[in-house]
Amino acid sequence: MRDAQHRNTLRITVWYPAASDAPEHPLVIGRPDKPLFDVGTVAPDAVFERNKSYPVIMWSHGFGGTARMMGWFGIAMARDGYIVIAVDHPGNNGADRMTMTGAVLWWDRADDLRTALDEVGRDPVIGPHLDSDRVGAAGFSAGGFAALVAAGAKVDPTRWIRFCRENPDDGDCQPNEEFAATFDDQAKALNSAELAVDVAQASQDHALPRLRAVFAIAPAWVQALCPASLSGLRVPVHIVLGDADNVETPATSGLAAGALIPNAAVDLLPGVGHYDFLATCTELGRANLPPCQSAHAQAKAHDYAIGAAQVFFDRFLRP
User: Which pLDDT band holds residue 287 (cuts at 50, 70, 90)?
Assistant: First the structure.
């Protein structure tokens, strides 16, 4: 339903530890001769580094993003000995046409992660390398929300609607760069008869079974999460966000979640904005793309998030 063409498929990207002699190639977003983002270097379809199982991190991209956009994180964690399974959420990714259903059925993102984990587990090449007893979740922005839902947080869209009506200037209530739908447009869709059956499923349990740890970067839609469910989370959570974020206002997003989640670690990075967590912008990207023009500390944001995630997941996912 979320996909513009009503396809029943889910596009999955897997980053994994490759053999040391596998030839690597640059990975970019945009035309190869005129890239907008420099993602890193990868060895497509290489054999695994070792014939063993690896801990798994499920990854959810931001609103209108892609798995590839967050490759800076996936590649780094794969080099550190993890398998990172990422998806392009239907109706809400930069490779396909965006839809209103893709924009407002946020909780379906956690179900996408479960589907991806199951499908990759059945893959004859990659599946045998998954350690299904050591699974974590991570995500950026809307993906950070998905990771918290995968941990067991419960969704109530009416809380978000009420919050935005009372706080219309909050960053979480403003139209997104990637999809020009106003708050009123989204609220109307959430209250529509067409989506009534889907919205009724928001409050259901969308937790990923046996999830051990969650790493959320600048999580979105925190005001749509039931406070009691956040206070009841038993999965370790680490939140990283920037104090210069004007898309997901820290006080009402990541900091608010961290204050409710028991023993959550929260890191507020000075001078870091929301789009600093996108893939590294090229000069062409900075010249042409508004998100890149507002990103001024990407290296700092990437390095900190990668280092923090490695320490965090090593603690909870290593044997």
Answer: very high
